[in-house]
Write a structure and sequence with these properties.
The protein is an all-beta fold and about 120 residues long. Helix content is about 0%, strand content about 50%. The strands form two sheets. Strands 2, 4, 5, 6, 9, 10 and 11 form a seven-stranded mixed beta sheet that branches. The protein has a four-stranded antiparallel beta sheet with strand order 1-3-8-7, with no helix packed on it.
């Protein structure tokens, strides 16, 4: 599985960005997908996850109510709509995939940088 994240950039606090993650090499609808992020000097943290069908989503407390994860299985693409961005959302964002819900993520994209200025 190859994952390509895009859509990062510089945005002011309160602004919005939409990240995309294009997948290839595997039937996309068979993959459980997620977003992670790693801020400078911090460990990577899980941000959001979405089930194979897109019918079930989950979020970390830090982004709940501001971020929305979605997927389009016909386009082999996952998205992360980020609204009301805060400076503490500044990080490299990674998309990830796994075959089974109970397993850890074993496929990772290269990351896209999101910088939120105050």
């Amino acid at each position: 599985v190859q994952l390509q994240a895009s859509g990062g950039g510089l945005v002011q606090a309160g602004g919005s960005l939409r990240l995309s993650c294009a997948a290839s090499g595997r039937t996309f609808s068979t993959l459980v997908m997620g977003w992670f992020r790693q801020a400078p000097g911090k460990e990577r943290e899980w941000v959001a996850g979405i089930a194979r069908s897109g019918g079930s989503t989950s979020y970390s407390d830090s982004v709940k109510g501001r971020f929305t994860i979605s997927r389009d299985n016909a386009k082999n693409t996952m998205y992360l709509q980020m609204n009301s961005l805060k400076p503490e959302d500044t990080a490299v964002y990674y998309c990830a995939a796994k075959e089974f819900q109970e397993n850890g993520y074993n496929y990772w994209g290269q990351g896209t940088l999101v910088t939120v200025s105050s």
